[in-house]
Amino acid sequence: DPSTRDVVRLLAARLAFLKGPAADAARPKLSLLLAETPDAARGQGQDVDRVALESLSEATVRTWLGELFGADGIGEELPPTVYALTGGRPGDVVALLCALADARQITRVDGGLGVNTAGLAAALPENLAAALALRERALTPDERAVLDLLRALSAPTPARLVSRLLPPPAPVEVARLLGRMASRGLVVEVRLPGDPDPVRFRAVPGGSTTPEADRALHARLARELASLGQRETPTGFGLAAAARQALLAVRLGEARLAPLGFRAALAAANEARAGLDPAAVVLALATALELAPDETARAETALDLADRQRRLGRFDAAASSARLATAAAPGRAAICLA
Q1: How far is the C-alpha of 4 from the C-alpha of 8, rounded, in Å?
Q2: What are phi and psi of 196, to 5 degrees?
Q3: Angstrom distance (rounded) from CA 102 to CA 76
């Protein structure tokens, strides 16, 4: 959409003046994204929601590590090891360095980073997954609960909501715990312009849980988010977030949550209509469509979704939604998309 493209243009302009591996990896993807026309992207039915960084070369990884540790401090073993374990993927490089720091194979020296020669002499992980697994096993119960929660929410979350949504007994000093986790690279601090919450937190990728644990967590979050009062709800965590959690739980087998999620999604769509946010209306209706309790509700939701998609110029998606409506209720008239 135009707003997203404006943000991409701003990022591309800023990156033009930056040096370093991360900026180098981002430029090609941003240039490609800017070269695509909105009509072409829309015709393919693709909405861009992330820009992947290109993998770095081994030489660039060495340069990056030299910037972090100092050219004389990285030794000969660390750069090829980091490259071999990560394939040069920037996010994986950062995750591996954090894991090695937790294992004291990398240490902080005078405010920077230094290689622990004795630590590196010990056996290094065989792969990135093994390194991250070691790190996850070293988490305290409170850290594990926070990371599981943030990963389930998958959006920058203020400390007050983390405290509200953690299962009992929740840590007393949640904000302080999040600060310590941020200093270790377990969570990332996010500051949003104009946000009444001065800082939010998101979890770094990683970790593994069972489908049963994920289902229970998403179900609990759906119920709790749906029950929050308006004053308690930070921006971005209203009924749409409750509906999304319900949908994730239903996909994992918690069919009982479908009615709650359907109601929350329709209410979120109405809120978005009142706020004149057509893209949010479409997203909420798409969630409601998947959670519809019967064929009549499915047909009505699909027709509403088709109309909204048509207004946004997403004609292929609108036609697909209209076909779903007529399949669910053959006797109903389909929306005219011409």
Answers
A1: 6
A2: -65, -25
A3: 21
Contact indicator for 264, 246 with CB cutoff of 8 Å: yes
Q: pTM of the prediction?
A: 0.67
- What is the distance between the alpha carbons of residues 83 and 206, in angstroms, rounded to a whole number? 19
Q: pLDDT (tens digit, 0 to 9) for every residue of the chain, 338 residues total? A: 555 556 665 665 555 555 555 555 555 555 555 554 444 443 344 444 455 567 888 888 888 887 777 656 566 777 887 888 788 887 778 777 777 777 666 665 555 555 555 555 455 566 666 766 777 777 889 999 999 999 999 888 999 999 999 988 877 789 899 998 888 778 888 888 888 888 899 887 766 678 899 999 999 999 999 988 666 678 878 899 999 999 999 999 999 999 999 999 999 999 988 888 898 899 999 999 999 998 889 999 999 999 999 888 888 888 888 888 888 766 554 444 44
**3-state SS class at 207:** coil
Which of 22, 1, 153 minimizes the C-alpha distance to 91?
A: 22
Bond preceding residue 169 cis, omega within 30 of 0: yes
Nearest to 146 by CA among 192, 178, 191: 178
Spatial separation of the C-alpha atoms in residues 18 and 10, rounded to whole Å = 13
